[in-house]
Amino acid sequence: MAEGTAATVRPRVPSGTITDPSEIARWRKDGWLQKQHGWIKVDKRLITAQDSTAVAAAQLALALAIAGPVAKGRTEEPLYVFRALKNGKDLIAWAHSQGLTETVAADDMHVTVTYSKSPVDWLAMGEPYDKEVTVEAGGPRRLERFGPKGDVVVLVFASDALFWRNAAMRDRGASYDFPEYTPHVTLAVDVPSDRDISTIEPYQGKLEFGPETFQAIKDKWKDGVRDAIAKRAGQAGAFGKFNPHQRGKTDA
Description:
25% helix
C-alpha cells in the first residue's frame, strides 16, 4: 500500500439502499437480502442457491419468523385475501386487441392470495414483505379456461412473492381447496367454447397489484360472484354455481 493511502474498510452489515448490482451481489453471497424496510440476514446457502425451491423456502422461513407465534384465544373465522390489479385497463386493452371482448371490469380484476374456508386467526397471518407486488414484464405465462363450463378465461403467471405468501398462510392454518397455488387474474367470462385461446400470445406487460385486502368469506359468496358476472354478460342466472379459482367441475 502506498504511503499516505488509507485502506477502505468494508462494513460488517449493509445499510441504506444499495443500487450497484455488483455490491448487492456481494452482500447476497454473505446471506443478506435487501427489502423495502431494510436488510435481512438469512442462511446464505439458500440465498445463493440457483434452485428456486430453495429460495422460496428461505423466503417462507423469513415470513414465518416475522409473523411470530400464533396467539391463543383470538377469534377465528374463514378468510379471503386478495390484491387488486392496479393496471387492469392495460390488461383489458390487450384482451380486446386479441378478440377477448367479454372482459370483466378493471376494478374487479385481482389475484387471490388465499381463500381459507377453514376458520383461522387473521392476525396470525402476519404481514407481507411488500406492501404492493409488481410482476415484471415477461416470464412464464399462459391462458387457461376455468369454471364448470370452461367459459372463464384467466391469465396464469408466476410470482415468488405471492407463492410464498400463500404458503406462509397455509403453514399457519389457512386451508386451500387445491394441492398447489397458481396465481391468476380472471380476464373474461362467457367465452365461447369454440374460441381457440391456445393461439393467443399471453399478456406480457407488467402486472401491478395493490396492498392485501382481508375479507370474511360470505356464505353465498359464489352466488354473488355468479350474479355479478351474469349481470355484466346480460345472462342473469345462466352460470349455475361458479368458483373463479377452480378448473373444471364446480365443487359441491
